[in-house]
TrEMBL record:
Residues 383-393 have a biased composition (Basic and acidic residues). Coiled coil: none annotated. InterPro entries: Citrate_synth-like_lrg_a-sub (IPR016142), Citrate_synth-like_sm_a-sub (IPR016143), Citrate_synthase (IPR002020), Citrate_synthase_AS (IPR019810), Citrate_synthase_bac-typ (IPR024176), Citrate_synthase_sf (IPR036969), Citrate_synthase_typ-I (IPR010953). It comes from the Bacteria. This is Citrate synthase. The gene is gltA.
Amino acid sequence: EADVFTYDPGFTSTAACSSTITYIDGDEGELLYRGYPIEQLAEKSHFLECCFLLLYGELPSAAALEDFESRVTHHTMIHEQMQYFFRGFRRDAHPMAIMVGVVGAMSAFYHDSTDINDPWQREVAAIRMIAKMPTIAAMAYKYSVGQPFVYPKNSLDYAGNFLHMCFAVPAEEYVVDPILSRAMDRIMMLHADHEQNASTSTVRLASSSGANPFASIAAGIACLWGPAHGGANQACLEMLREIGTVDRIPEFIARAKDKDDPFRLMGFGHRVYKNFDPRAKVMKQSADEVLGLLGIEDNETLKVAKELERIALEDEYFVSKKLYPNVDFYSGIILEAMGFPTSMFTPIFALSRTVGWISQWKEMISDPEQKIGRPRQRYTGAPRRDYAEIESR
Ligand code: SDX
């Protein structure tokens, strides 16, 4: 029987919705934010300017950018009482578990004053989410390492503020390294939005019922955590560490090709890209640049990653299945060089993707024709039949 999917502005099928925000051409390896190529934005723009672009559709004037950055900066603190949510977690809780819980709890602090039918209040919710996610992610990290929380500093830019909240300690001054801050900002830009990926679709479906944006984004964080999605950056670095040296690569390539082995090359393949993920190319250049500037260009993990990529891209299995490195293949190498544990890789993906989630939420909620999402199925169960009395079973 034909796969007949009805189309409407809501969310009912794999052709889920129409959107003006991000365009992907999987065959050409093209990614555009509101029409601008990701390669140009990664080189010339910065994360908050990309946030403005994704939210409002155009690059800002200098005055508009200054106003936007000021509004975000002045919403980076979270309600003081929210810190008690962190203390309910075990110290070894994964930071993603903490983020799911704390972001969901934002509903109890900010939702009451958020009428999503009021365009201005939708703006405020968007600004709050973008502003507070780095603070929550940094607090999740601090809690997991048993260090005191560090408040945001308005004198720092968005990426530098996040690094400061993660790595500063009361005992000594932490000076944000501009190399690391620029690299972090670029990582955030590369992860900002990506059309209707699993977590964005989760946010759209959850909020299509009218659920508040904070709870809907908590659902997106839960979805992103999976190793087939945002959790791949952590899984990829752990895989590269397990491979250890280039001479062990063939063993893992063989495992990835073995249909009876569930192992897959983490950071490889994509549901849409059947060519290079353009973000992976930028990330690879950034890894070379950052590790070079940090004087660790002979990093063994980077060597293994590059050799693994070279071998895989010459292997018939990967070539025939059009499997290329994706955004998660090199990102962990940079984040590890910055001093982050692997458990913080996906939280950084989540805080970066928040602008994509909230921009797509705003686009959907602002559509007066929007309906609740209702995916359909292809039923393959038992045909209609009458009840069987227990004696006859
Ligand atoms: C992200 O959707 C998005 O936009 C996501 C994302 C975003 O920005 O939001 O781009 C972020 O999630 C990137 C993907 C991160 N995940 C990983 O790196 C995990 C490793 N990759 C795989 O799990 C896999 O490639 C997926 C989940 C990404 C895609 O899975 P599919 O849909 O099964 O892949 P496919 O249809 O392209 O697979 C084709 C074939 C299959 O074999 P056959 O069934 O044809 O025999 O290739 C095989 C797959 O088994 N395959 C792999 C593989 N990925 C696919 N084999 C070995 N290693 C891999 N990594």
